[in-house]
Fold this sequence. Notes:
- This protein has helices spanning about 15-25, 35-45, 50-55, 70-75, 85-90, 105-110, 120-125, 130-140, 150-160, 170-195, and strands at about 1-5, 5-10, 30-35, 50, 100-105, 145, 165.
- The chain has about 200 residues and is an alpha/beta fold.
- It has a five-stranded parallel sheet with strand order 4-3-2-5-6, sandwiched between helices.
- The radius of gyration is 17 Å and the shape is globular.
Amino acid sequence: MLFIKQALLSVSDKTGLLDLAVFLQNAGAALISTGGTARALTQGGLTVTEVSDYTGSPELLDGRVKSLHPKIHAGLLYRRDDPEHQKQMDALKWAAIDMVVVNLYPFEKVVAQEGAAMALALENIDIGGPCLLRAAAKNHAHVAVLSEPSDYSLIIKEMIENQGGIGLNTLKGLALKAFARTSAYDAAIRDYLASQSLRLVP
C-alpha cells in the first residue's frame, strides 16, 4: 500500500481539484503546487507550498520553467526500497513526493479553434506536465499519478476504504493511463505540426 505524505498538484483543468486537495490535506498530506493551481487552493482555504519556495528556484521565462527541477524529479523517481537512493536523498535533505496530480495545457482544444495561430499553439505545448506524469508513472510502485479529474473520486474512495492506502493494482492502472495520455498528447502535437506543412527530415 502507498500512503500519501506529500502531493504535487499542477493542473490546467481545475474540475474537482479543491475536493481532492481538501481530502488529501485532511488525510495528512502536505501540498506542493504551481502558480494558478496554488492560488486556487489557497483561496479554498488550504495550506500550500509553492514549487518555487519548495525548490528555492523562481518560476522562469513567463512560467515556461516551473517544475523542471532536480528536487522535484528526485522526489518522484527515487526508489524507496533502494538504500543508495535513500542515502542520496537523506544527504540532500530532499523528501519523497508520493502523488502527482497533473493535467496538461489544453493543446488539442486550442488548435481545434478556427484560425488558431501557430504562436498560440506552441505556447500551449506543455513541457513540465508530461515530464511529471512520466516520472511518476515510471516509479508507480511508489508514486500515484492522477492525469485526469475523473481519477479523483476513484482515489478518494480507495483511500477511504484502505485507511489512507492505495493498492498496487490501482497504481499500475493510473500509470498506464498517464502514459496513454502523454502518448496521445504528443500525437496531437505531431499531427498539428504536420498540418502546418512541417515535415520530418529524412
